[in-house]
Amino acid sequence: MKNWDQMDIGVWRFGIISPLLHRNELDESLENALLRLADQSFRQPDGKTVSFSPETLKKWLYRYRKGGLPALENSERKNKGTHTSVPKKIEDRLFELREKHPRWVFSRLLDQLIQEKIWDTKNPSRASLYRFAQTANLQRDPHITPLPAKAFEYEIFGQLWMADFLHGPKINIQGKKRKTYLHAIIDDASRFVVHAGFFTSEDTEIMMMSLMEAIRRHGKPIRFYTDNGACYASIHLKTVCARMGIHLIHTPPGKPRGRGKVERFFRTVRDGFLDGETPPAHTLEGLNQAFSAWLSNYNRQPHASLQTTPLNKKLSSASACTPIPETIEIESMFRMSRQCRVYLNNTIRLKKRSYDVPKASPGSRVEVWFMPWDLEMVWYGPDMIPARKVDAAHNAQTTRR
After folding, report:
1. Do 128 and 213 fall within a single domain?
2. Of 102, 171, 225, 346, which is least packed with CB atoms within 10 Å of its CB?
3. Are residues 92 and 56 in the same domain?
4. Domain range for residue 280?
């Protein structure tokens, strides 16, 4: 909406909420109308398709009723250009860290604040700190020449795992061609591939799922080396690694600095598994089955740099990985959390899905826990009560009339 004038924004928003203004209150409640409208997508003049939460639509509705079209326009923040929400202690420490570490990216400065327990990651918000950095010129100078990369190699399995994505072949999914992505995690010392598989998306949630499976099989490593992902998922990955005592190392997207070993592995995959125009399989399941067989052979083949096989190198010395006790549920360490509003029909909305929360109070907000790659079941409240997806047909049969 950056290139629209204020009137255009107000008219466009009015067109979205207009069905709410003319609805028959006897036929449909406002809550249900908001839920129905939130399920729809709307096209902006720039061609981008967007959707809005029921809370946003309700806010627009009340703003229009109070002030008409002008109330639907964007208004300038009253404190724009000021950063009163940033405490003096955090402000001073950021200037000190920037002077001491001119090469650090700003996200690393924030990580240092967290380690020093100066910032609790909530107050002020991360967005406020980034706005403050922009105004105070605390971002890293892009003209600083990066330090030259040095060759390194750890000695023991589990001291460092590194991960990355490789663009794979297209396959058929429900009659449509979909691109695949190979995500691999390899051990630096042994070149042993601790987990790898093909997926239909390239995001940090896939990375977290792969890391969870690798830890389940081999234990948790000391360090995990990967690139930055999407903002929210990347922050969650940092939280997961901090929770488990894993040192997370980030590199900027598109700049695989220091991840040469995984890049070399990808070249081997290109030459040995994906060689040719015809993919090894035409379905995701078939592709992963074929790759699993190829990977088992790879880990048992002599590696030129090691003068032995990755499997033998892994087994030749003690592992630095810490096993996860069977009494600990590893999935709970990888769950994301989010605050969700409870609607009048005792449901919540999470990623365009509705869930029943019968023990939550309508109008309140509850903490919701979920696995990003599996939304069939979520949990809510301090007691981690399971919340199942709304089954309208089942609810209709059980509702007393």
Report:
1. no
2. 102
3. no
4. 161-315
